[in-house]
Amino acid sequence: MKMGKLINEEGLRVDGRRVDELRPIKIEVGILKNADGSAYIEMGKNKIVVAVYGPKEVHPKHMSLPDKCLLRCRYHMSPFSTDVRKNPAPSRREIEISKVVKEALESALILYDYPRTAIEIYMEVLQSDGGSRCAAITAASVALSDAGINMRDLVVACAVGKADGMIILDPNDIEDKEGEADMPLAIMPNLNQLTLLQIEGKFTKEEFEKAFNLALEGCRKIHHIQKKALMLKYFGKVEE
Amino acid sequence: MKMGKLINEEGLRVDGRRVDELRPIKIEVGILKNADGSAYIEMGKNKIVVAVYGPKEVHPKHMSLPDKCLLRCRYHMSPFSTDVRKNPAPSRREIEISKVVKEALESALILYDYPRTAIEIYMEVLQSDGGSRCAAITAASVALSDAGINMRDLVVACAVGKADGMIILDPNDIEDKEGEADMPLAIMPNLNQLTLLQIEGKFTKEEFEKAFNLALEGCRKIHHIQKKALMLKYFGKVEE
Amino acid sequence: MKMGKLINEEGLRVDGRRVDELRPIKIEVGILKNADGSAYIEMGKNKIVVAVYGPKEVHPKHMSLPDKCLLRCRYHMSPFSTDVRKNPAPSRREIEISKVVKEALESALILYDYPRTAIEIYMEVLQSDGGSRCAAITAASVALSDAGINMRDLVVACAVGKADGMIILDPNDIEDKEGEADMPLAIMPNLNQLTLLQIEGKFTKEEFEKAFNLALEGCRKIHHIQKKALMLKYFGKVEE
Amino acid sequence: MHSKRSFIVEDLRKAQLANLLTQGKRLDGRSLLDYRDLKIETNLISKAEGSAKVSLGNTQAIAGVKVEIDEPFPDTPDQGILIVNAEILPLASPYAEPGPPDEEAIELARVVDRGIRASDMINLKNLCLIEGKKVYTIFVDVSILNVDGNLFDATSYAVVSSLLTTKIPKYEVKDGEIKQVDEKISLSFDTIPISVTLGKIGNTLIVDPDQEEEALMDARLTLAVDSDDNIVAGQKGGAGSFSYDEVIRATEIARLKGKEIRSKIKEVLGIG
Amino acid sequence: MHSKRSFIVEDLRKAQLANLLTQGKRLDGRSLLDYRDLKIETNLISKAEGSAKVSLGNTQAIAGVKVEIDEPFPDTPDQGILIVNAEILPLASPYAEPGPPDEEAIELARVVDRGIRASDMINLKNLCLIEGKKVYTIFVDVSILNVDGNLFDATSYAVVSSLLTTKIPKYEVKDGEIKQVDEKISLSFDTIPISVTLGKIGNTLIVDPDQEEEALMDARLTLAVDSDDNIVAGQKGGAGSFSYDEVIRATEIARLKGKEIRSKIKEVLGIG
Amino acid sequence: MHSKRSFIVEDLRKAQLANLLTQGKRLDGRSLLDYRDLKIETNLISKAEGSAKVSLGNTQAIAGVKVEIDEPFPDTPDQGILIVNAEILPLASPYAEPGPPDEEAIELARVVDRGIRASDMINLKNLCLIEGKKVYTIFVDVSILNVDGNLFDATSYAVVSSLLTTKIPKYEVKDGEIKQVDEKISLSFDTIPISVTLGKIGNTLIVDPDQEEEALMDARLTLAVDSDDNIVAGQKGGAGSFSYDEVIRATEIARLKGKEIRSKIKEVLGIG
């Protein structure tokens, strides 16, 4: 992490945003024919497709759970999604993200409603940018809704970072690589519960609290976009 | 593919053959004790052993088919079979050939006669030359006969190629590598049906038809050798 | 194997031992809470932990044996156990040793007493020195006792080698690498039966017999230490 | 998406299809030699040097091109490297599973690769920077996003479209060293190979089978045709067989449909 | 070691635990913010450049440090390389299986690695010998010997303790070549990051959950704190969630317990 | 090939065999220390630098030798490299499965390799072209074509026979470069190691067990003997054990049979 000029004298970031500003976000619902639920998200340069299959039979059978649904989750990056071509085999990073994303979504799912079945969530990152795991979570919870799965709340995610000593919302790729710290988190916005938190890099006590609140604020804004996308799909229009 | 001198002024090829001539072929039946059926073929420098096991129980059980036989096929090259030592792990090329060879043979098998069982065909290329997949198919259908498996017809295979602009029958290794095109195919000679076709390299309309007919002619000649080999094994002599 | 100066003019070895002398040995019993039986051995620089689980249910079920216990054995070296860091994935050497060690111990186990179950033996080499497979066997048979598994006898192992043309007992790492020959073996000392034997390097008829007897003598000494360690664990004191 | 159906239902459906085919019709209303709707979007992955998303009916494939500078293979020191790869993503179908590619995915990738390579669409000698030392490696990775039959053609069109719109970084060679120049260049093309896949059901040949037709059909034949009407690649698939006449007829259909689809792709991509 | 228990027994145990927690007590008698006994032994693997065996209650981990000289990564030519790896040995638990690391072992290794790396405990620039050519690669491999909960903290303490006691071979650089000198040097440290893991059961936060508590708890939060009380790494785990207040409270607990454990480790290792 | 038999049949067969053994006879009529018929064909793979197909009764193995020029291992800069590999092909037995080698195949390959290597049959220093830079790598790959017991000996004879008939390309070293010469040279040999495998059934030792005997026997002992009657390698296998006297007796049998088989191989290959 080198101290580059990530924020200029006017307080603007490399892509022209203010420190507390999100990148443009676009969410589409139901874009894949075969999946039981699906969503597509663009968040900055992130372009991610999510499919949900289930509740469905469990293969192999002995992995099925007698009292609840088995949740499976795969976060995967396309070979052409990154600056340097990515080997298509899952990396350790992708395996870890698959796990934390699964746990972030599981908090919102009522898995006891679907015993002995499985729900599979597939997230394919077609193009990656900073915050791809957050965008994937945000889209996945929309895809779960689209599949008609019972949920306590949507899950929405957003990262905060630190660049040139300042707390910034929703870091992009360059800020992620050259900044000093990164903290993705996910919440259930109506229940006010945190379901994902990862931290990498130094935060003082004050910085942490500031960053945490900024991320919550970001999540609430994205939640609004999630709801609009679902309304558009199911009711054909969005009342503002 | 470079335009070498693959055919000389007298119309003869690097190994002295005419353009429509096959390499020497030798087939032996029943050469392995453990297998239910087996065959050995030499076709030019190709030396291939084929074993057939089955119909037998399916492992793992859940892969068995309720109404027909499961056909499995493995085409594999020995590490010492090639000019440069081959890694013993199956390559993508071997996996693809295993699939098309299986489908070439499956056309002739009456798999509904053996429900809930498996037939396994193992082809081991001890020494490779041009046209090894064709030689493997030719030998495998003899080994299937040797195993007493019900078949509609034998399957016999042969390749055609293009070298120095001419259509040639049964290309060898050098012609395969330095020639302009290659087309292996397999047929059921009594039923006049094509069960394998692969094409790589440019064929004009006229070239294609010429090549196709030349390959069919080659197959018919090899079919004669198949029958002789089986006669020799089962009746001890061959009536010409 | 180069002919170094492994034995000096006074007949002493690089670590000061006489040719028929063992390295210091320490065995502790029951050192892991989770395992059904466990042992720790130090033999020269070897430091090895062994855990035994079982008799327990077999996974996957279809591998269970109707009339006897399934024995599984894993010999594994920690990445930091060797001079150059070892890749944590099991090497071919570790797989072979796992097999011969399993067979060395199996001779002493009454597997027909535990049909349809499994016993698992895990040997982790924290630090390796010459003779690590022998130390592992010696510790594993103690751990099997600690787990209360029915045995005909303890199994005890020791290696002999050849250095500067002399037969030496219990070679260390340097003697193993620079010596001329190595012969690890395991016995059941009360039954006078050999359960492991591996030989690598030239032994004349006379050398072989001398080496074999020296190894048996070494095993008997180590057997005494095995018994003391078990006594200490179960009766709190050792009567000499 | 069809769930797995019983044998009886399957047989009834097959009879219905066979009946339709005698009238020259198919289950979705197409006639025998009709392709489904073909849609192509390009340049949607800005991190890739080229990209294309292709929809053939409900089959969707996305291809991305990445370029690296590597050493050439020892036996072709004066040629660049082209590697085409295909993956059927687990999100594409309820039957696709995560894991290493199975024989079906490997065949798909190899057949598409062969169709491009054997046509000499890309002159690999143009991709050599310093003989024996530095060449362009062009990776084309295709991901199947939704499976509804005829993956071969959809994948092939995605590869062709992404290559046709690729811009690679330019390098200057000076004193045996390469230096990237602030300029992007297109690849040059002599021909555009088009893959045409036929299905055989009973004794009828159809093109562009959808997933339901694939489940009912006896055999498959994929042929790639170049801009000069040459057959440049082919692959038969499936447990059934073809009569010799059917093969010849298939080559004629492939030339016909190949020309049609080539025009369509050129039109969409705005190529001469 | 607890065998797998029926749902009914599990529910009874959970009720008992919940009841205890309201009184500020835990099943093994600890209070909510008590760690189990921490024991550290160092330098027990003489073939390693550093080593430490850590017991946290019945959880046991052993870490070994190996050093190699390698080329640096192309994007960090002036930095050494630090690789932290963790494996749950099959001898550590009746539920651990031989084989490649599963997602749990991968998460463990990556979180511990992040805690060390993000704290800048080790200045990687000090590990560069010749820029772009020769750097130290420090491998820290941790093996779990016995599983009884809170592998994250036990593993992290083993890594920190082994690094703090590591002595690496010294090299001199002369005329662009490196030469090993007959001397060993310690690594230099600016800070000591301490991992603190909290469990949430109902609405109660505890630290250092043992295996039984892990089975009953709703969610996990691991935070790493440096010598200056900064949070340097974090990872939430488990299917449950935290209220925002709980997160803030967790950071306070982490600072408190981090300081305590840092003192303890420094005392055991005899560091200033 | 015997199908899997019930326990009762198995016990009856074992009793029958035990009874025969007391009379010094075996199920196939051999006496205790008789080998089955040994046949060797060489030079049947012209693409390999050496090859041999060995039949020991119905056990068949084929070995091929391939030669490459590589860098030596860093710790043996003045030595060539010899790599012996063995694979039990799935066509060799109804119980063999495709896939990576299992522990049995790995043991087979390593034991045969050890028998060759420890005998110093091939002087690896003769295979060095330029110290530290260029050496011959000799790959010997063995494929088992038909399994009928005693794979160890059949594989070993195939390796030895293929090496004895190998001709490798000759290189000249000039100005620190190597250049292939239009000449082939044989490897040079000081000794011929012979593998002798014994089985123990009850208290009887037999040599060259076939598959049925292997299924019924208690333990296996493979010993390799060089031309000077030294034991150069050994491996005990199986769940049973040997008395100390039996081990000594086994070494005597190995010397005896080793001499016999060495003569036979030399005769077939036409070696002095």
Notes on the protein architecture:
The complex is a heterohexamer, with three copies of chain A (240 residues) and three copies of chain D (272 residues). Chain A is 28% helix and 30% strand. Chain A starts with 24 loop residues before the first strand and ends in a 5-residue tail after the last helix. In chain A, the strands form two sheets. Chain A has a five-stranded mixed sheet with strand order 1-2-3-5-4. In chain A, strands 7-6-8-9 form a four-stranded antiparallel sheet. Chain A is of the alpha+beta class and 240 residues long. The mean pLDDT of chain A is 95. Chain A has a single domain (25-235), classed as 2-Layer Sandwich (Ribosomal Protein S5, domain 2), CATH 3.30.230. Chain D has 272 residues and is α+β, with helices and mostly antiparallel strands. Chain D has one domain (36-269): Ribosomal Protein S5, domain 2 (2-Layer Sandwich), CATH 3.30.230. Chain D has helices spanning 7-22, 103-118, 151-164, 211-216, 244-269, and strands at residues 38-42, 50-56, 59-70, 81-88, 128-130, 134-146, 167-174, 177-186, 194-201, 204-207, 219-225, 231-237, 242-243. In chain D, a hairpin with a 2-residue loop joins strand 9 and strand 10 (204-207). Classes of the chains: A alpha+beta (240), D alpha+beta (272). Chains in contact: A-D, A-E, B-D, B-F, C-E, C-F. The interface between A and D is medium-sized, with 31 and 32 residues. Strand 9 of chain C pairs antiparallel with strand 13 of chain F, so a sheet runs across the interface.
Global shape of chain A: globular
| Beta strand % of chain D | 25-35%
Provide the spatial order of strands within the biggest beta sheet of chain A: 1-2-3-5-4
Mean pLDDT of chain D: 93
Based on secondary structure, the structural category of chain A is: alpha+beta
Largest sheet of chain D: 6 strands, mixed
Q: How many domains would you count in the coordinates of chain A?
A: 1
**Count of DSSP helices of chain A?**
4
**Rg of chain D (CA only):** 20 Å
Q: In which range does the helix fraction of chain D lie?
A: 25-40%
Q: And the CATH topology of chain A? A: Ribosomal Protein S5, domain 2
CATH class of chain A: Alpha Beta
For the record, the CATH architecture of chain A stands as 2-Layer Sandwich
- SSE string of chain A, helix = H, strand = E? EEEEHEHEEHEEH
Stated plainly, the CATH topology of chain D is called Ribosomal Protein S5, domain 2
CATH homologous superfamily designation of chain A: GHMP Kinase, N-terminal domain
Q: Which regions of chain D contain 5 or more consecutive residues with pLDDT less than 50?
A: none
What portion of residues of chain A is helical?
A: 25-40%
From the N-terminal CA to the C-terminal CA of chain D, the straight-line distance is: 39 Å
H/E series of chain D, N to C?
HEEEEHEEHEEEEHEEEH
Apparent shape of chain D: elongated
